[in-house]
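Worked example

This section walks through a single chain of length 438. The input is the sequence exactly as stored; nothing has been trimmed or padded.
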Amino acid sequence: MVLPAGGRPGADVTQALGALWDYRVYARRWVFLLVLSLLSFSNATLWLSFAPVADMIAHHFLLSTEQINWLSRVYLVASIPSGVVAIWVLDSVGLRWATIVCAWLNFAGSVFRTLPFMVGGIQDPFAFLMGGQSLCALAQSLVVFSPAKLAALWFPEHQRATANMIGTMSNPLGILVANLLSPALVKKEEDIPMMLGIYIIPAGITCLLATACLLESVPPTPPSARAIHSTSEKFLDGLKLEFIGLCGALFIVFGVLGALVLSLYVDRTKLFTEAVKIGFCLTSVVCVAFALVSQLQGQTLALAAICSLLGLFGFAVAPIAMELAVECSFPVGEGAAAGLIFVLGQAEGVLIMVLLTALTVRRAEPSVSTCQDGQGPLDWQVSMLLMAGLCTLFSCFLVLFFHTPYRRLQAEASPSCSIQEDMSPATVDREPHPAATP
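Given that input, the structure is written out below as tokens.
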């Protein structure tokens, strides 16, 4: 059998291979998924373990609240260069070694954070805290990018979405647990070492499982025809071929940059509502542009630019919206507020995706759309226009009807605030730390 130029099998060749290849699935795929899910969960808990108890951490180490905030922000900064490297590592080194390296970075970072308590006489504890967080941050990109690749390489077609969902949702689950667990563990400053030690446990277990149980990056026999050539393209060639992957990378990179800049701005101005409203409006405009341009041919650069803007405006406003939810729901706990927003957002996302998919139209004649489900081209024009319309409607509703006082800021500014009465004098004039957000 002769392959096309470039050595990549086409659709007809893949079907022929399917007749000759004995597709199999292996039970150890679930072990791989378990390790990756635990790793994603642990990494997320380490990311935001300091944020819910920022005041006590700052007072114990004689640090400013701004320094404590950077223990979370370092994840955003590190994800920009490490994200590109992670793509290359996954395609070049393989999923097994990428996961093992990620697990060791995550475990080393969790241990490094505890050194100020384990070693006496340390003059600059912030350097160890930031060093540990930086190691964990380097592992984050590999954690986030791996579920889709694991699903494609190890799982059959009818299980890929489920596997991807389990691996991906472990990360926000870890964020939710960190928001609830840290305040529950740290009632006084003497509890901080215990909190840091408890977060080492899942990181250590995951590191042990990854090193001992992951024996190969791909199964001996592919689970489906698609898995035969799912990773055959090199990094740069793959970016050129898989335009959707490039758009996704642009969305993430610009989203992280936007989130970092906007978070710094809102931290200083406290303009939560204004930032959210402007961000949503700009996102709506970009959604409309995407719905229109996506129906045209030969608009590669325009689509790439639109995806970058979607990340810059839409992704960046997410942590600010979460912080605003905490402000307007006070005195409800940060974990409960963030968790409720997350659950409602996931439910809304599922409903919208089901609706948009149901509105696709299959066309027998040639179509601009190249999205296929194995039976013919699908036209997403109605779905894209509906998405743009819903985004615009929600943005208008938010701008016109959403007005709220910042209850948490007001409580912290009040001299009779019970929260301040429970704190030491060194932390009374703190500024609020950012809510834990994905």
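What to look for: The beta strands are 361-362, 371-372, 377-379.
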